[in-house]
Amino acid sequence: MKPDIDWANLGFGYIPTDYRYVSNFKDGAWDEGALVTDATITLSECACVFQYSQSCFEGLKAYYTKDGHIVCFRPDLNASRMAETAARLEMPPFPEDRFVEAVKQVVAANKDFVPPYGSGATLYIRPFMIGSDAVIGVKPANEYHFRIFVTPVGPYFKGGAKPMTIKVSDFDRAAPHGTGHIKAGLNYAMSLHPIVVAHQEGYAENMYLDPQTRTKVEETGGANFIFVTKDGTLVTPKSPSILPSITRRSLMYVAEHYLGMKVEEREVLLSEVPDFAECGLCGTAAVISPVGRIVDHGRVIDLPSGMEEMGPYTRKLYDTLTGIQMGRIDPPEGWVVKIA
Ligand SMILES: *Cc1c(COP(=O)(O)O)cnc(C)c1O
């Protein structure tokens, strides 16, 4: 059924589509999986996901390229990251090749919901997995539900990406025992209060520091940091407790191989942030959101790139990566995966 969607005014909310992909794990094995039409899940009140939050997810998007194909961007990296997250949560990894096939299947089945090229809107793809059988003693579930639904979403920035003001948070993003490098709702649950507080204070986002020393930059609730030095080096924090963003890894490659920039992945001290020329947050949804100002307990750090627009290096990185994604610039082998 052709949906009646006003692509130009689409927001960032859930719109159910025709099909979702489902596979269940039972007696030690994943079943063959299928596309289904039911957008609801019925579970025991004692399902492990409800009691002990055994759940994880991924996020990627499908869209039309310039030459009229439906594609998605590096789904193999979402597959491998979800397998790593699952292992840390004692969940059975969904096979990575099947993950990529399932993404293709569910997007193809919902192709009428892929927004047109140039609209800025995309089809957001949400794979997730939950512990689905009843567990009351604290232990991993025996059965799991893997599902991928898709939902069309509007452009992340309506009317251009204005630099934002963020704050250095008093909260730790994730539990300090190393759950920061997994993509799981439990980390997001812990970020809800800090982000509500930040918004009440007028900040767009939180900069979290390492919980041990509170001197090193980690990430925000849902995006990695990139910085650019005054001489054009891309610097991004290295830490065992930040989520390995696919966008950030792609930007590092683009910086080095397309733009000839120097790239450093290393510890970044809060004390050196005032020396940087540009700052941005990177993730699938927005690609790069520029940061113009960082407030550290009353101390204001203004990035030289200012509050009007992205800095020049950030702009180049943004234009090159989105150009690769949209088929305007030749991609590295395997980055842009054709679905239809
Ligand atoms: C998803 C996510 C990101 C961004 O990763 P991408 O793969 O670029 O979308 C960054 N930080 C956290 C905590 C995340 O969950």
Give the topology, please.
Layout lengths: L19 E7 L2 E2 L3 E3 L11 H5 L2 E3 L2 E5 L5 E4 L1 H14 L7 H14 L12 E10 L12 E10 L10 E5 L16 H16 L4 E3 L16 E5 L4 E5 L8 H12 L4 E5 L11 E6 L3 E10 L2 E4 L9 H14 L10 E3 L2
Parallel strand pairs: 9-10, 9-15, 12-13
Antiparallel strand pairs: 1-2, 1-3, 1-8, 4-7, 5-6, 5-7, 6-17, 7-8, 11-12, 11-14, 14-15, 15-16
Helix pairs in contact: 2-3, 5-6
The structure holds pyridoxal-5'-phosphate.
Pyridoxal-5'-phosphate binds next to helix 5 and strand 14.
Question: Main traits of this protein?
Answer:
26% strand, 340 residues, 6 helices, D-amino Acid Aminotransferase, Chain A, domain 1, 2 domains, nine-stranded antiparallel sheet
Tell me about this structure:
The chain is an alpha+beta fold. It has 2 domains: 147 residues, Aminotransferase class 4, branched-chain amino acid transferase, N-terminal domain (D-amino Acid Aminotransferase, Chain A, domain 1); 162 residues, Alpha-Beta Barrel (D-amino Acid Aminotransferase, Chain A, domain 2). Helix content is 22%, strand content 26%. The protein is built from 6 helices and 17 strands. Strands 1, 2, 3, 4, 5, 6, 7, 8 and 17 form a 9-stranded antiparallel beta sheet that branches. Helix 2 packs across helix 3. The longest helix is centred in the middle third of the chain and has 16 residues. The two termini are 18 Å apart. The structure holds pyridoxal-5'-phosphate. The site of pyridoxal-5'-phosphate has 14 residues, from helix 5 and strand 14.
